Amino acid sequence: MDLEQTAPKDFPSPKKFALPVDSEHKATVFRLFSIASPHMRAFHISWVSFFACFVSTFAAPPLLPIIRDDLNLTSTDIGNAGIAAVSGAVFARIAMGTACDLFGPRLASASLILLTAPAVFCTSIINSAASFFLARFFTGFSLATFVSTQFWMSSMFTGKVVGTANGLAGGWGNLGGGATQLIMPLVFSVIRDIGSTKFTAWRIAFFIPALFQTLSAYAIFFLGQDLPDGNYTALHKSGDKHKDSFGKVFYHAATNYRGWILALTYGYCFGVELAVDNIIAQYFYDRFNTNLHTAGVIAASFGLANIFSRPGGGMLSDLVAKRFGMRGRLWALWIVQTVGGLLCVLLGKVGSLAGSIAVMLVFSVFVQAACGLTFGVVPFVSRRSLGIISGMTGGGGSAGAVVTQLIFFRGSRYSTETGITLMGVMIIACTLPIMLIYFPQWGGMFCGPSGKGVTEHDYYMKEWSVAEREEGFHEQSVKFADNSRSERGRRIESVPTPGNGTPNATPN
């Protein structure tokens, strides 16, 4: 008998989406030039808002020669402010991950952007080294929107294209670090040419990134949607989504060693990128005697490489996963980041302007691609604690920038070129722990999957107790486990999957 004839009249019809979706209603394809709601709309809103936060956070470095003279800043003052700009995001990113898990990326992201926008506006009235430090510190909190961006993409796109989605959203957002090297000197010049003094022009210029950041928050709030099926608040009220416990979400993130390793390694790809954004314009200005505009253009080229380098890393992660699964993602991450470290060592050794620019450009491609490769792995570490794992990894990126600047670029202990070389050595060393990441259902860099027949269901169900499973709270994890079987690569049938979808795992 035909099902449609026997079904009740109020039987819910399947939800329809503009893009093909999997069992979680995550998009299985990525169409860059689409604005289809909710998947592609979330993509475009997220990267634009993250771009705005990057512009705000790094608006000061390209104008440092002017700001330095106006506020009588020392090299230590500038170094401390650079550290402040990225240190605020360390714990903010972990907090953002938690907020995404509990309240959804839409509210979490829009709220943080609005809370940090006043710090950007207030930069225009600072008058001392202390106020410069505070303005950069509080503005830097906005970089935690990276976590909501990656969480959002992982919630909207399935495993086969999640690396691409994360890479493009993160990479195009990071473009703000390069674009601001062009935007701020240009805005400054226009305002100065209109008739302002240079010490007034740089202050007025900060209203541009502040306004841009504010508008992006409203776009997220009014145009965005947390999940393919709706917003967290509505889904919690309807009972379609379990309202999780912070303690349990945090526990499963904190006890998963893979998240800690990725936090460390991300500190020496994205963290290095942040450190370079802070120092590169002044480095070329001081070492090679370039003018302010030229130094800004050179520095911009480093960040602007994100238009293809970080997305390229995400795409590479998805590409190698089609054949080699998770093991391919891990190998690609290790190789690309290690090569980036070697290029960083070389950058500090090159003594000519042309040579330094050439090495910097190639270095930027590898270090940024490693960022995209990292977030090709992150979505698979935990289903239940995805937000906190993303926050830990993102926080590790900011922490890496803080540590790097404290050791190598603060004060006069090292010359900038020596600091860059030593930073490269640190990249290589801190990338080695990737070799320790092992998924029992997929394997690691040197070992295949466990011989005990562990499946994706076994791995992800360990995050739920028997009582929680009896309540049906684990259903989304079951769907995710089914969809993540693609991480086996072409050996798709080499590990058994329970025919009834019931996991064999016992709870933690």
From TrEMBL:
Domain of life per record: Eukaryota
Region (Disordered): 475-508
SUPFAM superfamilies, per database record: MFS general substrate transporter (SSF103473)
Protein name, as recorded: OLC1v1028354C1
Chain intervals with Low complexity compositional bias: 496-508
Pfam short name (any one): MFS_1
Biased composition (Basic and acidic residues): 475-493
Subcellular location(s) of the protein: Endomembrane system
Transmembrane segments: 45-66, 107-126, 133-152, 172-192, 204-223, 330-351, 357-381, 388-408, 420-439
UniProt record, GO biological process: nitrate assimilation
GO cellular component terms, semicolon-separated: endomembrane system; membrane
CDD domains xref list: MFS_NRT2_like
Chief place where the protein resides: membrane
Domain Major facilitator superfamily (MFS) profile, residue spans: 42-442
MF GO annotations: nitrate transmembrane transporter activity
Keywords: Membrane, Nitrate assimilation, Transmembrane, Transmembrane helix
Lipid bilayer topology: Multi-pass membrane protein
Protein family per UniProt: Belongs to the major facilitator superfamily. Nitrate/nitrite porter (TC 2.A.1.8) family. Belongs to the major facilitator superfamily. Phosphate:H(+) symporter (TC 2.A.1.9) family.
